[in-house]
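Suppose you are handed a protein chain with no further information: no name, no annotation, nothing but its sequence. What can you learn? This example shows the usual starting point.
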Amino acid sequence: MEYISSPKNDRIKTAKKLTVKKHQKDAGRYLLEGRHLVQEALASGQTPYDIYATEKYLDDRALKPFYDKITQISESVAEHLSDTETPQGIFAVMPRQAEQLPEPLSGQFLLLDAIQDPGNVGTLVRTADAAGIKTVIFGQGTADAFGPKVLRAMQGSQFHVRIVSAKLMPIIKALQRAGIPVYGSELNEEAKSYRKIQPSAQFGLIVGNEGNGMDPVLLKQTDTNLYIPIRGQAESLNVAVAAAIMMFHLVGD
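A reasonable first move is to predict its three-dimensional structure. Written in structure tokens, the prediction is:
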């Protein structure tokens, strides 16, 4: 097994670049960090190009089938590769795959309209996963699904749901042509309370930007726009919290 002790090693320099979107797209690969996330990736059936691990992880049971992919690294290399203050010491170079919509279109969909905060994006994907929604659409202006902060916030849910990056208008039209109702979300009491919508096995739910909400152009294209009645004095809910309330209601028991 190869051992790399210096952050200046060419392979480490290349791996470090795979935390940046441009280099990820050019290489078709990204760098995944952390024991839990690497285990989730391997358990999902994906094959890593490389695994970099400090000594403490070399005997990890999940890594045994990929022994030929493992390179041992020093703690200083782990610190260099890490995007966190406390590196876990295990990384995997994974394929950055472009997902496609299911054919024929069917099921439940969460659409993200310019959600910019990585923590919110990751939480939205995790919540969709928890609710049983199988497809999440990352619209324009939404934080990149393969950015280190989004990857951490998704906590492995990206391996359980389909993530598609696409312009939302064509997706809305395609869902509607397939007979799938599309719900927008807005802080507007003239919209319909989410409680008045019956749970269904078929729907699309759009949630909008943290500060500006959904694009008004998209709001005009939906079948129905929903709001959450607020009883207290708070002006609004965090987008991930609001989406969670609506998702679990729309999915039903």
